Amino acid sequence: MILKRIKLATSACHTALEDQLPLMHSDLSREEYRQFVGRFFGFYAPLESLLRASNHWQLLAFDYATRQKTPRLVQDLLALGGSAAELAATPRCTNLPALTTPEQQLGCLYVIEGATLGGRIITRQLQTQLGLTPESGGALFDGYGTQTGPHWKAFCTLLTNNADQNDGHSANHCATENRHGEIVAGANHTFEALTHWLFPTSPPVRKPPRIAAHALQPA
Questions:
Q1: pTM of the predicted model over 0.90
Q2: Cβ–Cβ contacts within 10 Å for residue 215, how many?
């Protein structure tokens, strides 16, 4: 249930971000692309520092070390002509999403892991339009290569298991609702933080009204 619920609850934020991304534009230049990768680096570097410092990974039973995006961004920026000094001077986002609970952390991961799926389409566009490959500046959007699909399915299983676990409380339904709410909040806050970082003059996102949990049950 959580996968359907989080997809619906984050659809407005997701669409607002996706509609502004220039990565599929036919007039995207190499320099515009390089600048945009730099903006992504400025967001992912501090976000992943925050995630690495989390003490929730053992509880979530998730190996985050192999999922980090910052190393791919460094590889891309260097391949696109950047230097170590330029990377060090790149502005970093300071308005990061609050990730104080395991559930909020899962919501954040839903956003950054889900981005790898659409990234495969961007990879093909970058190769066609700019002649870029994962080795020459498109590593971030190539995700996990041929393992992108299996990695996403593994994360979805992890998310579902953690969202719907029986925690031993008498009011299990209430506990599950609270977990789901925290996961959705973590995802929306991540979308909002990334959108504001990439497009600081964008108008605020109008989110859809809350829908009763039973309305989100799979048919």
A1: no
A2: 9
